[in-house]
Amino acid sequence: MAHTTLTADEIDDVLYFTRGNEVEELKQTLSELLQKHSCSAKDVLEASVHSETGNTVLHFCSANGFVDLLKDVLNQLKPSEQEGVANGKAADKPQLINHQNQQGSTALHWAAYNGQLDAVKVLVQAGANMWIKNSAGHLAMFEAERAEKSGVVQFLLEAGGGEVEKTGREGKASEEDEVVVQGGDGVEQSETGLDALDGQANGGGEVEMGGA
Description:
Blueprint: H1 8-19, H2 23-36, H3 41-47, H4 57-64, H5 67-77, H6 81-87, H7 107-113, H8 117-126, H9 140-146, H10 150-160, H11 163-167, E1 179-182, E2 188-191, E3 208-211
Antiparallel strand pairs: 1-2, 1-3
Helix pairs in contact: 1-2, 1-4, 2-3, 4-5, 4-7, 5-8, 7-8, 7-9, 8-10, 9-10
Protein name: Ankyrin repeat-containing protein YAR1
InterPro entries: Ankyrin_rpt, Ankyrin_rpt-contain_sf
GO cellular component, one term: nucleus
């Protein structure tokens, strides 16, 4: 995906400041890293994928509803004109937008489950694929439905149009598959896959995990 290689600590810093919505600190970190590695902010953001969980900056922006930060990150992740010419339509959307973490969940899955309607709209408009299923076999739409986020469900139903009828409904996740994830900011995610950073980036936003 990205040609830039970051250390685990550098990745943790980027993800930590993202999930805490610490915009100035994130900008400073990105500036330092792009100078250190002689690359672009896009390269740094694409390389900031947690080695164990597979979570990205988009997962945390989306789950927490940091819409302004999400838009900014997506803008920085846009392919360059040169990449667009080289790769055609595949380069029209950010390469990271449909990235699946270790549980198969995309940023859209996280936004949908947490009821972050504005984030869901931004992701879909930016090219997020709403038909990707996570490891539990669930679409983002279903994650929103089982979390009773009716506004998100309605939006995704309308956005999906006729494809919704073709896809059908997935079954409910079993209790043993579900894990409650809660961050320091109060965001909670019940998951067969909506996992979060495993605590390697310590601080006020450290994730606590427990059984559902």
